[in-house]
Design brief:
Radius of gyration: 15 Å
Number of strands: 3
Shape: elongated
Structural class: alpha+beta
Number of helices: 2
Mean pLDDT: 82
Low-confidence stretches: none
Bound molecules: zinc ion
Largest sheet: 3 strands, antiparallel
Number of domains: 1
Helix content: 25-40%
Strand order of the largest sheet: 1-2-3
Length: 71
């Protein structure tokens, strides 16, 4: 149940459960590069500092919960 909601987060490119796979020291202003793996969808990606709008993700989850309650 909860896992399904988390997969929805992954769909929106927000991975709530991640683990650090590799850290590389980069050059320039970007600093170190952190490679992380999502525990839910198993996607490996470079952690982005800016991230996406968490509010939108939470709104979508709230909507899904409402839909599940109604049907
Ligand atoms: Zn994910």
């Amino acid at each position: 149940m909860l896992e399904k909601l988390l997969i929805v987060c992954c769909y929106f490119d927000y991975h709530p459960k991640i683990r650090l796979v590799d850290v590389k020291i980069g050059f320039g202003p970007s600093g170190k590069i952190e490679k992380v793996e999502c525990k839910i969808c198993k996607k490996v990606y470079i952690r982005d500092k800016k991230g996406i709008n968490l509010t939108i993700v939470l709104l979508v989850i709230l909507l899904l919960v409402l839909v599940m309650l109604l049907f």
